[in-house]
Write a structure and sequence with these properties.
By secondary structure, the protein is of the alpha/beta class. It contains 15 helices and eleven strands. Strands 8-1-9 form a three-stranded parallel sheet, with helices on one face. The chain is globular. Bound molecules: ligand V47.
Length: 376
C-alpha cells in the first residue's frame, strides 16, 4: 500500500470503530501491519475500551499456586516444566498447599490462580483434592484453576467426559478457569510449538462446556515467537466466535513470549511497540469480550501501564509466587503492593478499582484491610 492508501485504511477503520461496527479478518490484518499508525490505533482501541469500561483501571489482590512443575509434556516455549527426575522438579504436599492458602487469606487475597505441570505419577483425584482442601479451608478465596490443557489431561486419566470432570471440580470448589493453554490455535503454529497437547477443537470444547455449566473462563494468546499476523487474527476471530455463542469469556490476556531457558531461546522477545499493537488489535477485534488484561508480570510494569491507553482495562493483580514467567527470564518483581499498583493506574489517568475474579467491586474494611466484601 502507498501512503495515501494507509490514510484511507485508517479513516475506514476509524469509521467502523466509532460506529461500533465489527472489524473483519482483513481489517485485523490491516491494523496488525506495522505501517498502520500505532498512535492512531491506540486511540481507536481506547474508544472501544472506554465504551465498555469507562475510565476504570482494574486490579485484584491475588496469588499463584503451581503445585508441581513436573510435566509429561515438553512445550518448546516453556521454561517452567521439569522432568520427573530433574533436580529442579517439585511436588507440593497438602500441608504446603494449605499453607499457601493461609498466607493468601492473611494477606487479603481474593483469588488464587492454580496451574501446574501434568505429573507422570499423580492421578486425577490429586488434582481434585488440591481444589477441595483449599476450598474447604478457605471458602472465600476464589479458586481460578486448571487450564483447558489440564482438563484434557484429566479426560485422558479418567476416560470421563469433560462435563462430568468440570461438574466434579465445581462441586469441589473451582470458581473459574484461567485462559492458559491457548497458545496459537492455527495448526501451522500449534503443530510446531505444542503438537502433543490439547488441540484447538479440544480447547474450545472444554471452554464451551465450562460456559454451559456457568463457569466463567479467561482466554489467552501467546505471541511474538514463530507466528505471523494472520495466525494471531485467526486466533482472535476463533475466540470471538465462541464468545458470540456463549458469552462465557471474561477477559483476554495477550501473553508476550519470553524466550530465556526455553527451546526457542534463539528468538528475541517482542518489542514494546509489538506489545502495544497486539493489545490494541486485541481490544478492537474482541468486541464481545468485556476485559483486556495487561499482565504486568509478563509485559513489564512500564509497558503494562502504557497498555492502559492502548485498549487494556486491567493490570491483573498484586501477584505472589509467580514462576512460569520468572523461570523464562521475566525481570519484573515478584509482587506489587496495593499502593504501587493503584498509583501505576492513577499515573495512567485511570480510576483504580479493586475487583474480584468475576469483576465485582471489592470493598475493604478501613480498619481491617484483609477483610472484604463484594459490592452487589
Ligand atoms: O499457556 C508459558 C504461557 C500460559 C511462556 O487467566 C509463556 O487470568 C511467554 O495463561 N513466555 C500460562 N508465555 C499463563 C496464563 C495466564 C497468565 C496470567 C493470567 C491468566 C488468567 C492466565 O503462559 C501458557 C503459555 O501460553 N507461557 N511459557 C514463556 N516462556
Amino acid at each position: 500500500m502507498i501512503q495515501s492508501d494507509w490514510k484511507a485504511a485508517l479513516s475506514e477503520i476509524r469509521r467502523k470503530v466509532e460506529a461500533g461496527e465489527r472489524l473483519s479478518f482483513d481489517d485485523g490484518l490491516t491494523i496488525s501491519d506495522p505501517r498502520f499508525p500505532l498512535q492512531e490505533l491506540g486511540q481507536l482501541a481506547n474508544v472501544a475500551r472506554e465504551r465498555v469500561n469507562g475510565n476504570v483501571g482494574y486490579y485484584n489482590i491475588n496469588t499463584h499456586l503451581n503445585p508441581t512443575n513436573i510435566c509429561v509434556y515438553r512445550c518448546t516455549f516453556c521454561a517452567f516444566r521439569s522432568d520427573l527426575r530433574d533436580s529442579k522438579g517439585y511436588l507440593m504436599s497438602d500441608e504446603q498447599i494449605l499453607e499457601r492458602g493461609r498466607e493468601a487469606v492473611e494477606n487479603g487475597c481474593t483469588e488464587m490462580h492454580i496451574v501446574g505441570g501434568l505429573h507422570h505419577k499423580m492421578d486425577y483425584d490429586w488434582y481434585v483434592n488440591v481444589i477441595r482442601i483449599l476450598h474447604d479451608a478457605y471458602p472465600d478465596l476464589h479458586l481460578k484453576g486448571w487450564t483447558g490443557v489440564e482438563i484434557n489431561w484429566f479426560e485422558f486419566l479418567t476416560k470421563r467426559s469433560v462435563k462430568s470432570i468440570l461438574e466434579e471440580l465445581i462441586d469441589a470448589g473451582l470458581g473459574s478457569m484461567p485462559g492458559g493453554g491457548a497458545e496459537i490455535f492455527h495448526p501451522e503454529v500449534r503443530d510446531k510449538i505444542c503438537e502433543h497437547k490439547a488441540d484447538t477443537s479440544k480447547w474450545f470444547e472444554i471452554h464451551r462446556t465450562a460456559h454451559e455449566l456457568g463457569l466463567r473462563t479467561n482466554c489467552t494468546m501467546l505471541y511474538g515467537h514463530i507466528e505471523e499476523a494472520y495466525h494471531r487474527i485467526d486466533h482472535l476471530v476463533r475466540l470471538r466466535e465462541l464468545q458470540d455463542e456463549t458469552g462465557g469469556f471474561q477477559t483476554f490476556i495477550p501473553l508476550a513470549f519470553h524466550p530465556e531457558n526455553t527451546g526457542l531461546s534463539h528468538i528475541s522477545k517482542p518489542s514494546v511497540l509489538m506489545d502495544l499493537r497486539t493489545m490494541a488489535v486485541s481490544r478492537l477485534m474482541l468486541d464481545n469480550i468485556p476485559h483486556i488484561k495487561a499482565y504486568w508480570i509478563m509485559l513489564g510494569i512500564g509497558t503494562a501501564q502504557a497498555a492502559l491507553a492502548y485498549g487494556a482495562d486491567d493490570l491483573d493483580g498484586t501477584v505472589r509466587h509467580e514462576l512460569i514467567y520468572h523461570d523464562a527470564g521475566a525481570t519484573t518483581p515478584e509482587l506489587l503492593t496495593v499502593e504501587r499498583i493503584r498509583s501505576l493506574i492513577e499515573e495512567a489517568g485511570r480510576d483504580p478499582v479493586e475487583r474480584d475474579t468475576l469483576y465485582r467491586r471489592v470493598v475493604r474494611s478501613p480498619e481491617h484491610p484483609n477483610q472484604w466484601r463484594v459490592e452487589v
